[in-house]
Amino acid sequence: MDRVWAPWRMEYIASTKCTEEQGCFLCAGNRSDPDSLVVAKKGKAFVVMNKYPYSNAHVMIVPERHVANLEDLTDEELMDMMKLLKLSVRVLKETVDAAGVNVGVNMGRAAGAGLEEHIHIHVVPRWFGDTNFMPVLAETKVISEHLIETCRKLKERFEALL
Ligand SMILES: [Zn+2]
Predict the structure, then answer these.
(1) Which of 9-13, 51-55, 92-96, 128-132 is predicted most confidently?
(2) Distance (Å, rounded) from C-alpha 28 to C-alpha 153?
(3) What residue ranges in 56-129 does DSSP mark as E strands?
(4) What is the pTM of this model?
(5) Phi then psi for 50, rounded to 5 degrees?
(6) Of 151, 142, 138, which Cα lies nearest the Cα of 29?
């Protein structure tokens, strides 16, 4: 990465509530208004839909704190994340009839992390014979409409359960 001296950046940082290191898209999503893709919040963690999903209703469990490493999370943060994971599995079964769920964390670039500075747990609902799901939804417009509709459904269900 090129490093450029940029004094105006200090002003930009000072004018926003977040610090520079908290400026990732997960942090931004958590801070933004109701039409963000955040579908649930509890304690020190939240659930957000993946904008570039592996499958329909692919969500991520995220600690509010901008933390890269699993080993740096507090017990409280881990507990809130696990509670949201449990709830997410239930919501995916009840809302999109998930027949199975994949749960996983990519830690570090070498492990395939797309955003390695803010840890998150992927929760991907699965159905029998769903391997052709993405090609069916390959068109961007279809995905975004689908995403918003699914987002609305998930939010409603989480709200009812939390
Ligand atoms: Zn972050």
Answers:
(1) 92-96
(2) 22
(3) 59-63, 100-104, 121-126
(4) 0.77
(5) -80, 125
(6) 151
- Residue (of 63, 34, 70, 23) closest to 46 by Cα position: 63
Domains and CATH numbers, the chain: 35-161 (3.30.428.10)
Is residue 120 part of the annotated active site? The answer reads yes
Give residue 135 CA to ligand 1 midpoint distance, Å. 30
The residue type found at 39 is: V
Among 58, 66, 118, 120, the active-site one is 120
Residue-wise pLDDT for 75-111, tens only, equals: 999 999 999 999 999 999 999 999 999 999 998 888 8
**Ligand 1 centroid to 99 CA: how many Å?**
31
Nearest alpha carbon to residue 94 among 14, 148, 3, 160: 160
Query: For the segment 29-63, what is each residue's pLDDT rounded down to a tens digit?
Result: 888 766 678 999 999 999 999 877 777 888 999 99
